[in-house]
Automatic annotation (TrEMBL):
<keyword id="KW-0418">Kinase</keyword>
<dbReference type="GO" id="GO:0016301">
    <property type="term" value="F:kinase activity"/>
</dbReference>
<keyword id="KW-0808">Transferase</keyword>
<dbReference type="InterPro" id="IPR043129">
    <property type="entry name" value="ATPase_NBD"/>
</dbReference>
<comment type="similarity">
    <text>Belongs to the ROK (NagC/XylR) family.</text>
</comment>
<protein>
    <submittedName>
        <fullName>Sugar kinase</fullName>
    </submittedName>
</protein>
<dbReference type="InterPro" id="IPR049874">
    <property type="entry name" value="ROK_cs"/>
</dbReference>
<dbReference type="InterPro" id="IPR000600">
    <property type="entry name" value="ROK"/>
</dbReference>
<dbReference type="Pfam" id="PF00480">
    <property type="entry name" value="ROK"/>
</dbReference>
Length: 322
């Protein structure tokens, strides 16, 4: 039996798992992320997760180890600089994990961004399974994405390919945290949806959080201001998806994340708006579907990405010379 190790590191939790060849979790462990603590204390939490995984009998069959982490990151250097973990700036996470005493000799952990991990998971077991060219998106507090091209995960040189949230769709739009104007993230993230609705005069019911989920509930109830916020988000997403489709000729778009939980409140205007932007024959009628995997998609995706990377390396080694 092949066993894949996986870590999923985010702003609230550090999770780890051993995953079998079918994508099933043999064991899962979790620690809270001490996100505001010093770098070593954060790494100690990662080490504790690894210690617990290594104590499981299946660890001895480990063939690869994937790490999904919030970005920015640099997969070539093996470093991470998560926005929501201030103490880690260009932190050498891959080398630290590799140095764990139970990491098998010669095994180099494979680092991927959290959205790329979601893409790998959806391509392995979810909505993009069997699809050669797909864009998978996470629309939540921010907007991220990953690409499958030619049937393979395409993380790019530094691991950031598919970062659709930072495509400019409004040249005179609001300034994004990245420094560019009118990024998709400034218009279509959950944060942006809630802010736009509030600016239009919408208020959440007493005792509820004024977030994108509350805006979605209001839109479903017929609130025009809430519906307009989702319409604006859908337009931004449609423009970016159409541009990406024109560039790489997508077969499918998968959307997950908290905002996608709005269902038709997001997907109906998005599909309608696609007709405004996807006008070339080869960009029309690309299916846009919800993600199928939610729980532990980061862990499953980290395992899938690591397995794919190790398989590609092995193929290069055994390939005959021309």
């Amino acid at each position: 039996m092949m066993v894949y190790g996986a870590l999923d590191i985010g702003g609230t939790k550090i999770a780890g798992a051993l995953v079998d060849e079918e994508g099933g979790l043999l064991v899962r462990v979790e620690r809270a992320t001490p996100a505001r603590r010093p770098a070593q204390e954060l790494m100690d939490a990662v080490t504790a997760v690894l210690d617990e995984l290594a104590a499981h009998p299946a660890w001895d069959a480990l063939s690869c180890l994937g790490i999904a982490c919030a970005g920015p990151l640099d997969t070539a250097a093996g470093t991470v600089s998560p926005v929501n973990i201030p103490a880690w700036r260009r932190y050498p996470l891959v080398e630290r994990v590799r140095a764990h005493p139970r990491t098998p000799l010669g095994l180099r952990p494979v680092l991927v961004g959290d959205a790329v991990a979601m893409t790998a998971a959806e391509h392995w077991l979810g909505a993009a399974r069997g699809v050669d060219n797909a864009l998978c998106m996470v629309v939540s507090t921010g907007v991220g994405g990953g690409l499958v091209l030619g049937g393979r995960l395409h993380p790019g040189r530094s691991g950031n390919a598919g970062h659709i949230g930072h495509i400019t769709v409004d040249l005179d739009g609001p300034l994004c945290a990245c420094g560019a104007p009118g990024c998709v993230e400034t218009l279509a993230s959950g944060t942006a949806i809630a802010a736009h609705a509030r600016a239009a005069g919408w208020t959440a019911p007493a005792g509820t959080t004024p977030d994108a989920a509350a805006v979605a509930a209001a839109a479903e109830a017929g609130d025009a201001r809430a519906k307009a916020a989702y319409e604006r988000a859908a337009q931004a997403l449609a423009a970016a998806i159409a541009a990406t489709t024109a560039l790489v000729e997508l077969d499918l778009v998968v959307i997950g994340g908290g905002v996608a939980q709005a269902g038709d409140t997001l997907f109906k205007p998005l599909r309608r708006r696609m007709t405004d932007y996807a006008v070339l024959d080869f960009t029309r009628d690309v299916p846009i579907v919800p993600a199928r995997l939610a729980l532990d998609a980061g862990l499953v995706g980290a395992a899938a990405a690591a397995s794919a990377a190790v398989g590609a390396q092995a193929a290069q080694v055994v390939a005959p010379r021309p």
